[in-house]
TrEMBL record:
Record: residues binding Zn(2+): 143, 146, 156, 159
Protein name: Methionine--tRNA ligase
Organism domain of life: Bacteria
Matches recorded under PANTHER family: METHIONINE--TRNA LIGASE, METHIONINE--TRNA LIGASE, CYTOPLASMIC
Compartments (UniProt record): Cytoplasm
Annotated motif 'HIGH' region, positions: 11-21
Methionyl-tRNA synthetase anticodon-binding domain: residues covered: 416-568
Subunit structure: Monomer.
Cofactor binding remark: Binds 1 zinc ion per subunit.
Positions of short motif 'KMSKS' region: 341-345
Keywords per UniProt: Aminoacyl-tRNA synthetase, ATP-binding, Cytoplasm, Ligase, Metal-binding, Nucleotide-binding, Protein biosynthesis, Zinc
Length: 571
């Protein structure tokens, strides 16, 4: 059986991320990792903060901190939020780690050895006002391809085209806003992607056929436009240093590697950090080097696709070493806020720390995954969010759990009642649950999260339909044994929901499961065949009624949310 390696695009270090970042990479990766673990697959989920580059330097300067201290603080702050969202990383590392520096430098040496890195004298933008060379990200202007007037010097956020700073129209410094720029000569290292283009295309032909259209189309767009040699060093104080044993002159000048060169290597670096915590039992290299038994799945938003499907595979191929390359790229469109883009820099939309202040993580986890922006962009509105929470979580699932357990406790006491033998209604219910569970599993295997959310909701709804049909509150008047059967069957549904809902709503799943005193309850999953019997909890099992799982969002709540966050993209 294949081992499963999962990574999500590294969140950048400069500040808490918004919900769009969460649903675009880390949350779906967590849902998938949880599902794989529950269904018995060996799984390693790796992520880290992306800490190098000019934005980190500038954010640290604004905070009045050394950049290393700033990054350490921000790593801890981000990790606390991800813990709050119950993200089940096996390891959450840092791209500034010694392990990443070591492996990045190794990659660079191998690429040079194989003729895929070249030192070139180039002319680079220098800001007179800032008295420094400007990295590409800190030159802004108008994109020559789509006319977006806030394009960066490395990539246009609007059309995702890769740019050079000199491509921009009306270029200016993003630091000072000054357009007093001049071009000066300096030396940098270039990754010769043009020499690797054929190999990258052949690799995508072999492995990209089953990727989502979003991922494969972006990768092929890059290939069609042609892979250009790309500078992979920058004039910065903070980053992975160019190794002095290989490029002494550039090292003496303080050159560091471009953040997009070292950041993907941190997937490997973080795995090595993870292994170092238990060196006797963990072998990081088996996950990455000659790892033929590993299936590697990456999760990312669409703007990260080019670097993961073209640039990093080119880097790996160029080493001429058997490094593991991605098998499946799960790419997402954008979650928007009332039709406008969530934006960290413009502070528009809901940020993950603020989300957790409002409501528990499971509210957000369920809504985001059930409405994941897979086929197109998805617009977040408070109205749609509250309707989903109230209908699916509070009414369909939460109310089912509460009324079954409360009614049974009131009429039959604190133990699961026995009742009569299962009849036709229970047989039909078991068959329906088995079919819905098989559908849910199929969508999870295919990484179709919106469809998986629909199937999960249908599982919850089936319990409500059964309860309404059997109506134990009426049945008990004429057939107490029949009512006991109905409630026992419903309690078995609650246990099933607790197990299979865990990938989406882990905290609530744990609360449902802990309602039953089952010391021997070691089930990690319920198969479709097992689901038919609906007999996981024996009669006589003590149970408790947990607190309300999901509180409804009221109109007063909505008013306060809109006042705090705005009701639209322009507010």
């Amino acid at each position: 059986m294949a081992r499963h390696l999962i990574t999500s695009a590294l969140p950048y270090i400069n500040g808490i991320k918004h919900l769009g970042n969460m649903v675009g990479s880390m949350l779906p990766a967590d849902v998938y990792a949880r599902y794989l673990r529950q269904t018995g697959r060996e799984t390693l989920y790796i992520c880290a903060t992306d800490e190098h580059g000019t934005p980190a330097e500038l954010a640290a300067k604004e905070a009045g901190l050394p950049v290393s201290e700033f990054c350490a603080q921000q790593h801890a702050a981000q990790k606390a939020v991800y813990d709050g969202f119950h993200l089940s990383f096996d390891y959450f590392g840092r791209s500034s780690s010694a392990e990443n520096i070591e492996i990045t430098q190794h990659f660079a040496r191998k690429l040079k050895e194989n003729g895929f890195i070249e030192e070139r004298a180039i002319r680079q933008v220098f800001s007179i006002a800032d008295d420094r060379f400007l990295p590409d990200r800190y030159i802004v202007g108008t994109c020559p391809h789509c006319g977006y007037d806030k394009a960066r010097g490395d990539q246009c956020e609007n059309c995702t085209r890769v740019l050079d700073p000199t491509d921009l129209i009306d270029a200016r410094s993003a630091i000072s806003g000054s357009s007093d720029l001049e071009v000066r000569e300096t030396k940098h290292l270039f990754l010769l992607q043009s020499k690797l283009a054929g190999e990258v295309e052949a690799w995508i032909d072999e492995h990209g056929g089953d990727w989502p259209v979003l991922a494969s189309s972006i990768a092929r767009k890059w290939l069609t436009e042609g892979l250009h040699d790309r500078a992979i060093t920058r004039d910065l104080d903070w980053g992975v240093p160019v190794p002095a044993d290989t490029w002494p002159e550039l090292a003496a000048e303080g050159k560091v590697f471009y953040v997009w060169f070292d950041a993907p290597v941190e997937y490997i670096g973080a795995t090595k950090e993870w292994a170092a915590q238990d060196a006797a039992d963990r072998d990081w290299k088996s996950w990455w080097y000659e790892a033929d038994d590993v299936r590697y799945t990456q999760f990312m938003a669409k703007d990260n696709v080019p670097f993961h499907t073209v640039m990093f595979p080119a880097t790996e191929l160029g080493t001429r070493e058997p490094w593991k390359k991605v098998d499946y790229v799960k790419a997402f469109n954008w979650l928007t806020y009332y039709g406008g883009k969530f934006s960290t820099s413009q502070k528009r939309g809901i940020f993950t720390d603020a989300a957790l202040e409002l409501l528990p993580a499971d509210y957000w986890r369920y809504f985001l995954m059930a409405n994941a922006p897979e086929s197109d962009d998805t617009s977040f509105t408070w109205e749609v969010f509250s309707a989903s929470v109230n209908k699916d979580l509070a009414d369909t699932l939460g109310n089912f759990v509460n009324r079954v357990l409360s009614f049974s406790r009131k009429r039959f006491g604190d133990d699961v009642p026995a009742g009569s033998e299962a009849g036709e209604a229970e047989t039909n219910l078991g068959r329906e649950i088995a079919e819905l569970l098989a559908e849910y599993e199929r969508h999870m295997e295919d990484l179709q999260f919106r469809k998986a959310g629909q199937a999960l909701r249908a599982l919850w709804s089936a319990g409500n339909s059964y309860l309404e049909t059997k109506a134990p509150w009426l049945e008990i008047k004429t057939n107490p044994e029949g009512a006991a059967l109905t409630l026992r069957t419903a309690m078995n549904l609650i246990h099933l929901y607790a197990v299979v809902s865990e990938p989406f709503i882990p905290a609530s799943a744990a609360a449902m499961r802990s309602a039953f005193a089952l010391p021997e309850d070691t089930a990690t999953w319920v198969t479709s065949d097992e689901a038919k019997s609906l007999s996981f909890i024996p009669a006589g099992t003590p149970f408790t009624v947990p607190p309300v799982l999901f509180a409804k969002i009221t109109e007063e709540d909505l008013d306060s949310y809109r006042e705090r966050f705005g009701g639209g993209a322009d507010s």
